[in-house]
Write a structure and sequence with these properties.
This protein is mainly beta. It has no helices and 24 strands. The strands form 4 sheets. The chain has a 9-stranded mixed β-sheet with strand order 1-4-7-10-13-18-21-23-24, with no helix packed on it. Strands 2-5-8-11-14-19-22 form a 7-stranded parallel β-sheet, with no helix packed on it. The radius of gyration is 16 Å and the shape is globular.
């Protein structure tokens, strides 16, 4: 069940209490987690909704979600390198969006000790991301694009383009 009450949101704030900005119209399921313990901020615009099991974790970056967006069950949005989502974006269930990559060039050092690269991800207005998609660092998804279920997006997508596959490739244009 989705409720309109902000107090149902479990937010883990680090040292500051002003790093979570929600419009009063945002609908949030009871088991949504917004984690800002490691810095960064989360902003969610008017009439957006976060459904069951959504995880939004800043890891020091910013996550900005526009108006009238729907983040569907069990999707994970990370903010390491900053994530910007426009207005009227639909993100289907089990999608993972991660604006970071591990460095792994030095075979003599464990990967978890080599750090990250972060370029950020931008998802423009009126985008539909199908179920189970993975959106990787450095990508811009253009206005009006459609990402087919299960796609792995590792390159930017032009506006009004429909893509699918692993890695995602253009299938056709909407216009």
């Amino acid at each position: 069940m989705v409720r309109k009450l902000k107090n149902l949101l479990r937010s883990f704030s680090s040292k500051k209490s002003n790093n979570l900005f929600l419009d009063s119209s945002v609908k949030i399921a009871e088991n949504v987690v917004c984690d800002t313990r490691f810095g960064g901020s989360i902003t969610i615009g008017k009439n957006s909704e976060l459904l069951q099991g959504v995880l939004i974790m800043t890891y020091g970056g910013t996550i900005d979600i526009g108006a009238r967006c729907s983040i569907n069950p069990y999707s994970i949005l990370y903010g390491h390198g900053n994530l910007k989502i426009g207005n009227d974006v639909l993100i289907a269930a089990h999608t993972v969006i991660i604006p970071a990559n591990h460095i792994y060039a030095d075979v003599n050092t464990p990967i978890n000790l080599q750090g990250l690269t972060t370029q950020g991800i931008t998802i423009e207005d009126d985008v539909w991301i199908g179920a189970g998609c993975k959106i990787l660092d450095g990508v811009t998804i253009g206005k009006g694009a459609v990402i087919a279920a299960g796609a792995v997006v590792n390159k930017s997508i032009a506006p009004y383009t429909i893509v699918g596959g692993v890695p995602a490739k253009e299938l056709k244009k909407r216009i």
